[in-house]
Amino acid sequence: MMEFAASEIPVMLRRACIPRFAQSLMLSAMCLLPLGCHRKPAPPRTPQEKAFAAVSEKVEKAASEEDRFHALNDASRVAYNCDMMDAARRYAEELLRLAPKYATSWDYGNALQNGNIVLGRIALREGRVDEAKRRLLEAGKSPGSPQMDTFGPDITLAMELVAKGEKDVVLEYFDLCRKFWKTGLARLDRWSQQIRDGKAPDFDFSLEK
């Protein structure tokens, strides 16, 4: 689509041989439009804006519903990390709605985890602690995935709940994670014991950035 400066509009109308009264009507109507509405949105500038724009574009341009399902997994987390809470909530909710249709996908376990973790973190930010705790346990019910089985669960929400003094639900979450993170049993044991001892767990490797 061609773009032009506002100052060029009257000249273009005259060159198009549009009657003078019609030119006046058109120019008056344009003055009622919000400033800049005829222009393209400004391109993203910050790294966060660029990251959010990239994942959003991937979601919107997905060639199929299954492609969209996969794209939502990343988009929900990136939107949260970029502080785009409305988009994060929308993407996470859609991800969980689509998940049952792709229960045989390698990405199914990631979807159950990521959608619930994002919604739980949003709930915690909004002061809905019980909902955040419920979401953490729902995330722990994930059957796992190639990534989760190898690198472990997303423990961002668990860390935030521990900081709020919600220790019991985090211990329960760790127990749920044992079914898929077989290589991380020693870490789960250590973290659980640290929590029981009233210490801050040394969460230092699987935090989502």
Describe this structure in words.
The chain is mainly alpha-helical and 209 residues long. It has a single domain (47-196), classed as Alpha Horseshoe (Serine Threonine Protein Phosphatase 5, Tetratricopeptide repeat), CATH 1.25.40.10. It is 63% helix and 0% strand. It has eleven helices and no strands. The chain has helices at residues 9-15, 20-31, 47-60, 65-81, 85-98, 108-125, 129-140, 146-151, 156-163, 167-177, 185-196. α4 runs antiparallel to α5. The longest helix is centred in the middle third of the chain and has 18 residues, at 108-125. It starts with 8 loop residues before the first helix and ends in a 13-residue tail after the last helix. The model has no long low-confidence stretch (mean pLDDT 85).
For the structure shown, list the relevant keywords.
globular, 11 helices, mainly alpha, 209 residues
